[in-house]
Amino acid sequence: MTAVAIPGLDKAPTTHSGVLSWVREVAELTTPDRVVWVDGSDEEAERINAELVEAGTFVPLKAKPNSYWAASDPSDVARVEERTFICSEREEDAGPTNNWVHPDEMKATMTELYRGCMRGRTMYVIPFCMGPLGDDNPKLGIEITDFAYVVASMRVMTRMGKAALDKFVKPDGTEREFVPALHSVGAPLEPGQEDVPWPCNDTKYISHFPESRTIWSYGSGYGGNSLLGKKCYSLRIASVMARDEGWLAEHMLVLKLISPENKAYYVAAAFPSACGKTNLAMLQPTIPGWRVETLGDDIAWMRFGEDGRLYAVNPEAGFFGVAPGTNWKTNPTAMRTIEQGNSVFTNVALTDDGDVWWEGMENQPRHATSWKKQDWTPDSDEPAAHPNSRYCTPMSQCPILAPEWDDPKGVPISAILFGGRRANTVPLVNEARDWQHGVFMGATMSSEKTAAAAGKVGEVRRDPMAMLPFLGYHAGDYFAHWLEVGKNAEASKLPRIYYVNWFRRGDDKRFLWPGFGENSRVLKWIVERIEGKAPARETPIGYVPSAEDLDTEGLTEPLADIQAALDVNPEEWRQEIPMIEEWFDKIGDKVPSGLRDELSALQQRLG
Ligand code: GTP
Ligand code: SPV
Ligand code: MN
Fold this sequence. Notes:
This protein is an alpha+beta fold. It has 3 domains: about 210 residues, 3-Layer(aba) Sandwich (Phosphoenolpyruvate Carboxykinase, domain 1), CATH 3.40.449.10; about 270 residues, Alpha-Beta Complex (Phosphoenolpyruvate Carboxykinase, domain 3), CATH 3.90.228.20; about 80 residues, Beta Complex (Phosphoenolpyruvate Carboxykinase, domain 2), CATH 2.170.8. Helix 11 runs antiparallel to helix 12.
């Protein structure tokens, strides 16, 4: 056997034997022209950004420092749930909500796709750590990718480079475990072939091997498909680790709410993709004296602390936020974060003065370059920005970042919110009777599909705990795990659970609730409930405030709208029952009996 000489392969800045052998194996399979070990330095970032500009992937923005505009291939704009696979050894472990292929078969198929797939390209080796570097047990990974855009984005979204690699070998020489995460755009270059700004492949696979804690992604450069520390590691693989180890890996924001008395409450909230996590995490309260600080906008890892409370850590270091709808009124915090630069904007519009714009932002330009790289004017039939266009920006720039954001201990959660996008039925806020009832709310929550994933937008689907596309194992086992977490804790120390809906509409389709900063009124009611101070009416679905129980001072919306947003209509809920039954039947025997009990109790209360 002759070892292949690939420039850079032997420059490994680590002695970790698992890393060395895996990187060599991948290089020999994918045959890149060169290997770059990513160190995370500023000089390296400058070089990579310059290369991306040279390749036409990045256009530097004149109006924001160290920031870039990128437009993807028009076919590569969102997560591809149909092409996402949980390749557990046994099909029943993936469950009825995931696509499954046996790991041997998937590895055989993808090995052939990967063979020679990095020809003509650079293979980047990115060491990264999900969660604070100071953790006693850091969650490490190596992403191998052939797309420099992924390197630039991982730099924003994770703790990466030398600082992460230093954690791979303990001071005593022991090698830590890591998640190998392989990514290729699947677009080898033949000698002399010209590259395109956004290489990708019509064939896409986003595959997860839960038993070996391995990720293989092929064919897409879009965030959730290519930034493998994010959904692939921190949710799909981590949910399996969490099941095995007794913790929770969730699609949740984490915020700190500070009352006028300066008391802090930490809140975690699970809303499906493009349903308001970033906006709630960065909320600017409209009620006097209340403040919010941000800890995370997409993912929370929650474990019990020594005091028996549930503590949350955000594994990420950046925001990969939905651009459309973001403006100085809806989300001033996001605007102030991106304004400082060091950001990548993908599939938004590029203005003629070298800035970014998207639908919903102030100062609509008279002319711009659309995300499809076409001339755009306000008269154009198509939007300037793709509905799932995104900004990628460092958390450290967030002006209301909570000082404890990087603390490995995490923050103790007082309330968990589940929420979806429902035009009817689901009231603005609803408090669970207890943990089991709250788990039932999460397990049966539903939402209209958004542009964050390929497919039809607007269809109502069950999205348990906002994890439907991100569960690494059987949904029924996942519900059982949530119940188990509650059983192992003292009830008084568990977070209270709420079900919220900012998206209920009136007959004329307008939103009944103003949302955004006004959601602070709902958070205030929740905190007052926790303190035993706020009233609520007991309804068949849970404890719901009346309009007068909420602080509505200064709200300009008609009282009738607020009342309609809070309305619990038993007839609408009775129509929900068969849909929940159908959902439970889909999950099958593994639906825990506690949740079946909750369903019958709900049915009975609805009469
Ligand atoms: P992912 O990053 O895909 O997981 O999404 P997310 O849950 O962080 O969603 P985000 O906060 O980015 O919101 C998505 C869209 O919903 C944006 O267009 C927002 O402007 C809009 N939105 C957020 N909060 C509210 C709200 O309270 N009311 C209304 N009407 N729209 C909202
Ligand atoms: C989501 O779709 O929930 C996102 C964006 O947060 S992505 O990282 O692409 O999954
Ligand atoms: Mn998300």
